[in-house]
Amino acid sequence: MQRALEIGERFGKLTVLREVDRKHGRQHYLCKCDCGNEKVVMKGNLFGGQVRSCGCLKKDNHQNITHGQKGTRLYRIWSGMKTRCLNKKDKAFPKYGGRGIRICEQWIEFNGFYEWAKSSGYKDDLTLERKDVNGDYNSSNCKWIPLSDQAKNRTNTPYLTYAREIKTLKEWSEETGIEYSTLHARLKRGWSEERTLSTPSLIKRKQ
Fold this sequence. Notes:
Layout: E1 10-11, E2 14-23, E3 26-33, E4 38-42, H1 43-48, H2 56-66, H3 73-86, H4 110-119, E5 126-130, E6 142-146, H5 147-150, E7 159-162, E8 165-168, H6 169-176, H7 180-188, H8 193-198
Antiparallel strand pairs: 1-2, 2-3, 3-4, 5-6, 7-8
Protein name: AP2 domain-containing protein
């Protein structure tokens, strides 16, 4: 049997003020929250820990998790990343989660992603890029780059297979030293992947 509550006793952010009329035979107490609000709580819920504030604690915890960022561009970037990798119904899933692209454990919750973004120089004119487009979303494989720079590395860029390796056009340009525009033009003219990547170019990629 639960003991009687004492005036001034605390449960989380709630301080017991007095007992109020019983409801359905159960004891209820008027409590004052640290934020100043008052709330009537059933005795069993105080003892069991189900109620620890007037409701503000849940709100505070949500604000702490999202840092007040919900609805911002950074939050949308994080949400989009999760959708592409985890939601099988998303149209982009085959190019991300469907290819085995994963999100590191620290970024599954927004708090971890937010802290990394803050420390790695995020600005609203930058976008998230994976250094290795076949790699996962994590702090060692991701960086912030200007939006214009990401165009060459989008997941709708053709993946070319050569010497048993699969890479984007941008990656092959960097590896072969052939200009991205040259490789793109060759493919557009109908060249095979092997010919596109194995034929030397007189114009080398700018460093």
